[in-house]
Amino acid sequence: MARSVTIKTIAQDLGISHMTVSRALSNSPNVRSETRELIQKRAAELGYVRNAAASAMRGDTTRIVGLLIPNLVNEFYARFANALAILCEDNDLHLITHLTNDDAGRERLALMKLRELQTSAVIMVPAPSVETHSAHLFHGIKTVQFIRTQKLPFDADSIVIEDAQSIKDAVHHLAAKGHQKICYLGGHALLSSGRERKAAFIAAMETNGLPVRDALVQTAVPSFNMGAERASSILSGDIDASAIICGGFEISNGALDACLKADARIPDDLAFIGYGDPGFYRWIQGGITTISLPIETLAAQALELLTPKNAHLSTQQHAFATELILRNST
Amino acid sequence: MARSVTIKTIAQDLGISHMTVSRALSNSPNVRSETRELIQKRAAELGYVRNAAASAMRGDTTRIVGLLIPNLVNEFYARFANALAILCEDNDLHLITHLTNDDAGRERLALMKLRELQTSAVIMVPAPSVETHSAHLFHGIKTVQFIRTQKLPFDADSIVIEDAQSIKDAVHHLAAKGHQKICYLGGHALLSSGRERKAAFIAAMETNGLPVRDALVQTAVPSFNMGAERASSILSGDIDASAIICGGFEISNGALDACLKADARIPDDLAFIGYGDPGFYRWIQGGITTISLPIETLAAQALELLTPKNAHLSTQQHAFATELILRNST
DNA sequence: ATGAAAGCGCTAACAC
DNA sequence: GTGTTAGCGCTTTCAT
């Protein structure tokens, strides 16, 4: 394989100093425009591209952005990654994606790998964990937490979802339709989001004068299976409820799966309010009522926070409101 | 910000030569095990990570893999990217994803950026284009074409889908159910996949003694809208058919969308065979009969082809068979 | 306007 | 078993 073409290759080829080539290629004014054009032309012909490793070694920013998310199968994450990737293309950034599967160990490994590459910035959905990562792990990396907030060894900006109002809206909406036994399926109280959503649910139930029996507040480690199981319990009558409100992406998909597999009539047998808005929610059962998140906005904000110009002294928490989308499952 | 810790930092800290540190950290046998352990311990304490840029400059492989795909919204691509990302995690590879949106210009830019980073290998879904990229673009990059095959300035391995048999199976299946007017919705003949799928459809129709009117073979630039439009034409009666076979991911989703929006009764009004198997196909309308692709296998093969040990002299085309999954839409 | 030297972090190739 | 040197590609600093 022919050696790759460098500024020295070009310099030799043209019989000049590699310094002149360097200057020409970075459009320095200190080169005769004639020489510059000659050099640029030759560089293009030879297929020259600058070596990012050499740049990085000199301490220039690598323009590498790391994305740590649980997976790409969940449509919310996929859409977020998609939006972010487009923004990165447009801003000449390299996006490196690591799937953590919500595992703190994998997360640690991913961060180490990113650090090797002199990654400039990271956007992460932190894995649930009791341990706090060592501060070393983030050395030199501008970090933004996305969706969730974990205790980090330093202050980091974060982007969070403000969905309490949508959950209250969901309860009001169902109550207005005459539902009394509304069941909430959400993440457990170890997650701050879990606590807040649950609190919003309970508050709204009380506002509507509806009793909140324990069975109506189902929380656990959020997962597809958890959603499916609890929905099945409702359909089988083990849990007495006429409506479901989901408080998590996977939970929502799981609960929906169970309803569809059981051939439940929605909303007659069971009214259903999902969480997140995968494309097919619009289609199935005439449309699933759901809590939708402003994905593009979130991605734009994430990138915004990474740009150095945006350095602020205090750590900021950026909240974005969700929206209850009414369709035909309620 | 404190300077980042290097082997020299550690060497100074320990009052030894940076070379000994280097050896210790790469487990060279030429270090007293006592010294080695001391060094490794201190390195861990200081949060040392090796600098990939320095490595790259010395000519070591970067272990960076580029993935060029149209988008992450299409569930097939998302699942492929997910599977590949997991494999990369497990093989200590860095995965850089670029979205091309099927645009040759974006593709070119992405390749250039990857070349800057000394990317070792690329897996790409080539954008449809009449022009052939310059050979420079791929210099030093092991390339694998995925799903589609474009003419490249050199020989590259490729991974393709062998779906002709599934399309024939689809026709047989519908014919056995008594359908005579089966409409095929696929990509146009400029795509090799388009030609092959169409040929398979026609061949199978003839095998079953079914007439192939022009209107029953609908091909165009494949897209969601194309699928939606043609499906609508069928539902409205503009195209006279009792069954649809889709020959593309986006087409399939578009056609399905149109059917669901129109509240078509499936399979009574219209039998439907999709392409690809997004998770929700299992749910809606009691399950959509579809042509499913072995995604995990494809990803594994893609990575396999990138490993250097796998160097073969001749370019290979690796074909993977799809499977017709029978559900309740037919 | 152009060139020479130095150094970023790392390791192969040599000393010793 | 350990230390010294040189060089990967690039740009900043200092000549000329």
Q: In terms of topology, how is this protein built?
A:
Two copies of one chain form a homodimer.
Chain A: H1 7-14, H2 18-25, H3 33-46, H4 52-57, E1 64-69, H5 75-90, E2 94-99, H6 104-116, E3 121-124, E4 142-147, E5 157-162, H7 164-176, E6 182-187, H8 192-207, E7 217-220, H9 224-236, E8 243-247, H10 249-261, E9 271-275, E10 289-292, H11 295-306, E11 317-321, E12 323-325
Parallel strand pairs in A: 1-2, 1-3, 3-4, 4-5, 5-11, 6-7, 6-8, 8-9, 9-10
Antiparallel strand pairs in A: 10-12
Chain A binds a DNA duplex (16 and 16 nucleotides) through helix 2 and helix 4.
Give average pLDDT of chain A, whole number.
Answer: 94
Number of helices in the DSSP assignment of chain A: 11
Would you give the CATH topology of the largest domain in chain A? Rossmann fold
Looking at CATH, the homologous superfamily of the largest domain in chain A is Response regulator
Rg of chain A, Cα atoms, Å: 26 Å
Determine the N-to-C terminus distance of chain A.
64 Å
CATH-scheme architecture of the largest domain in chain A: 3-Layer(aba) Sandwich
Number of strand elements of chain A: 12
Give the H and E element order of chain A.
HHHHEHEHEEEHEHEHEHEEHEE
The proportion of residues forming helix of chain A, as a percent range, comes to: 40-55%
Beta content of chain A: 15-25%
Spans of chain A of at least 5 consecutive residues whose pLDDT stays below 50 are none
Broad structural category of chain A: alpha/beta
Describe the main β-sheet of chain A briefly: 6 strands, parallel
